[in-house]
Structures are given as C-alpha cells and as structure tokens.
Automatic annotation (TrEMBL):
Organism taxonomic ancestry: Eukaryota, Fungi, Dikarya, Ascomycota, Pezizomycotina
Pfam families: Anp1 (PF03452)
Family classification: Belongs to the ANP1/MMN9/VAN1 family.
UniProt entry tagged with the keyword Membrane: yes
InterPro entries assigned to the protein according to its UniProt record, in alphabetical order: Mannan_Polymerase_Subunit, Nucleotide-diphossugar_trans
Record's bilayer topology term: Single-pass type II membrane protein
Assigned GO CC terms: mannan polymerase complex
Membrane-traversing stretches: 12-30
Organism field: Ophiobolus disseminans
Alphabetical keyword list: Golgi apparatus, Membrane, Signal-anchor, Transmembrane, Transmembrane helix
Keyword Lyase applies: no
One example of a Gene Ontology biological process annotation: protein N-linked glycosylation
Record protein name field: Alpha-1,6 mannosyltransferase subunit
Subcellular location: Golgi apparatus membrane
C-alpha cells in the first residue's frame, strides 16, 4: 500500500478525528475533581481526620477498619463570590473569637436566613476560667442545634482552645478598652484570629464572616445583604442599644470606632512614630481627626449607602475568602503603625483589595 494512499485512507482520518476529540474532552473536562460550591449534600461528611476541614467529620467505631486519607483535586477557578451567593451555593465560614458566651449572640446566629447547610462555624476560646464557662455554654447550644431540625443545622463546627497566655486580667469592657492595654490586647487578638482563620478556611470557602461574640443583633439577611455589594471587604456600622439613666429613655449609640477614613493629621502622626508604635482610634490622648463611620449614621438616609474606608473594625466584617488566600491577615505587630483589623485593611490595600463600609446599616453590640 502506498504512503499517499495510507494518508488519505478514510479510516485513518476517522481515527485521527476520534483521538483529537478524546484529547479535548480529557483536557477540558477537569477529570473527577469536585465542582466547588455545587451539589453539596446535607449529609456529606468527611471519611478521615485528614479530609478537608470544610466538611464535618464523624469518627468511625473503634473496631472499624481505618479509611485511607482521600486524595482530592480542587479547581479553585470553580469557586465563586457573587452578588447572589445563595443561588450559586457559595459557602460561608463564620469565625468568632470568644472569651465570653452571650445567649443573644447564638440566638441571633441561629436566625440568619442564609442556608445553614452552606454555613460553617469556627470558634477560638482561651483556656481561662471565663473561657471554660464560655466553652461549656457554647457546647450546649451546638449540641442542641446540631441535633435539631436539619434546616437549622450548620454544615460544620470547629472549636479551638487557645493555650496562649491572656494579656489581660479581665475581659470587662472598661479593662479591655484602656489605652495602655491596646497594643498587647490587639496583638493577642490578631494571633487568635490568624490561628482560627488558617485552621478552618477550606478550599470550598467563598466568604469569611468575622463576627465578635458580643454581637447580639443583626438583620437575618446579613450575609446576603453584605455579599450583594460584591466588594472584597465590607463592614456594617456597629452600635449599642443603651438605656440612658439620666434621660430615662432607650437610645442607640455608636460603638466600633475602627471603621474610618484616614486624615492628613493621622498620616503625619504615623510618619513621626517609631516602627513599633501604633496609632489608636477613639482616645483623646491621640487625636487623629479621622472621619469615623460611626459618626456618619443618618437614620433618614439611604441604608444602602456605601463608602470607601481605610481602616475597618472586626465586630462584623465580611471578607471574600480570596483576600485571605492572597495573604491578607491580621498583623500582631505594627504594620505601617496599625495593628489587628486596621492593620488587616492596610495589608489588604497593599495587595490591591479595597475596603468599604455601610454607615446606615446597623448591627448591635452587647451593652455592658
């Protein structure tokens, strides 16, 4: 058979076409890798302690054969963070450093209207007397919720116990907010936040919602409300409900002063500081003249108003998981003279991620 005949043989052409099609199907199909964020069954669990942290793990019986650790491929391009997170089944990781347990915090968490099957919870609790009490109370509520109706159960819950030394003798609000305690306190908070984040964020996490343990009231639609802005970092305005004994009336007052727009004065102060010194907000001894989002609240204004921020607080903070994956964490050291959540906003900005705030969208902090 001549060479020219073999090249023009229809059978050869058909076989070559099949091989080409097979190659393209193999190359673009993604193999047997999971499609992140899709078709997550409520009963899906990890089969081994080394399985991804984003799945709940159930221990096998003592005499059961040990299951081999799985090998799983994740294609991160399949992970979305969109304005419609429920429709796209985007998973949310809610992280809470907890020194005290407030029942109102848990009740508010349980009322969130975002599908609980798409929410994982993470806590870090110090090994102190107060921390042990918080741990016991939290465990009781978790057991009650996770054994209740399936729609109310969370996808996974992780609790870390913190062995590091607590820099403060008390968690009372007056002690926590003393100016001389801020650097050591917030450095310890940064370490706790980072430990919690690095331990719990899995490859299927789309959003990370930081919520302090003393946030006791938010709209049930909090997650989808904040995600709808489709920005890397966003914070609502944190207030307190307070009873004014002098006026004998209930009022609301601003609480979180770490959401701010920078000022020339603050920049000049930072330029004159040593590399290990930090700027603090809300103290008369250190007037920065920054524009505080807490002071911008207007009950008659548009609740959807969004502003750009240079510093953020962590009382309630929604972050696209890719921001953390890109390297933005909470510096426990002076980072451009900022620390913890404010340092996080600065670090994120250095990585080209912007922060935003909602001055007229309120969440409420426990009033001590």
């Amino acid at each position: 058979m001549s060479r020219s005949f073999r090249r023009s043989n229809p059978i050869t052409i058909v076989l070559a076409g099949i091989l080409c099609i097979g190659f393209f199907v193999f190359f673009f199909s993604g193999g047997d890798a999971p499609v992140i964020g899709k078709n997550r069954g409520a009963g899906e669990t990890a089969s081994n302690p080394l399985s991804p942290a984003s799945l709940p793990f159930r221990k096998s019986k003592a005499n059961a054969p040990r299951v081999a650790p799985p090998v799983v491929h994740y294609y991160m391009n399949n992970l979305t963070t969109s304005r419609t997170p429920i429709e796209n089944e985007e998973t949310v990781l809610i992280l809470t450093p907890m020194a005290r347990f407030y029942q109102e915090y848990w009740d508010n968490l349980a009322k969130l209207s975002y599908p609980h099957s798409l929410i994982s919870l993470g806590f870090i609790i110090p090994k102190t007397k107060e921390g042990n009490a918080a741990y016991a109370a939290l465990q009781a509520q978790i057991a009650k919720t996770q054994s209740g109706p399936k729609p109310k159960r969370f996808a996974a819950v992780t609790i870390l116990r913190q062995d590091t030394e607590n820099p403060l003798s008390s968690q009372a609000e007056t002690e926590r907010h003393k100016m001389e305690n801020q650097k050591v306190r917030r450095a310890a908070m940064s370490k706790a936040r980072n430990s919690l984040l690095f331990t719990t964020m899995g490859p299927t996490t789309s959003w990370v919602l930081w919520m302090d343990a003393d946030i006791i009231e938010t709209p049930p639609s909090l997650i989808q409300d904040l995600a709808a802005y489709d920005v890397p970092i966003i914070v609502p305005n944190c207030f307190q409900r307070h009873y004014d004994k002098e006026k004998k009336t209930s009022i609301i007052r601003e609480y979180d002063l770490n959401n701010w727009i920078d000022s020339p004065t603050a920049k000049e102060m930072g330029a004159k500081m040593g590399k290990d010194e930090i700027l603090l907000e809300g103290y008369g001894e250190m007037p920065t003249y920054r524009s505080l989002m807490a002071k911008m609240y207007d009950p008659s204004a548009d609740p959807t108003t969004k502003i750009k921020l240079d510093g953020v607080g962590g009382t309630t903070l929604l972050v696209k998981a890719e921001v953390h994956r890109d390297g933005a964490m909470f510096p426990p050291f002076a980072f451009y003279n900022l620390i913890e959540t404010e340092g996080f906003a600065k670090m994120a900005k250095r990585l080209n991620w912007e922060s935003f705030g909602l001055p007229n969208y309120l969440v409420f902090h426990y009033d001590e």
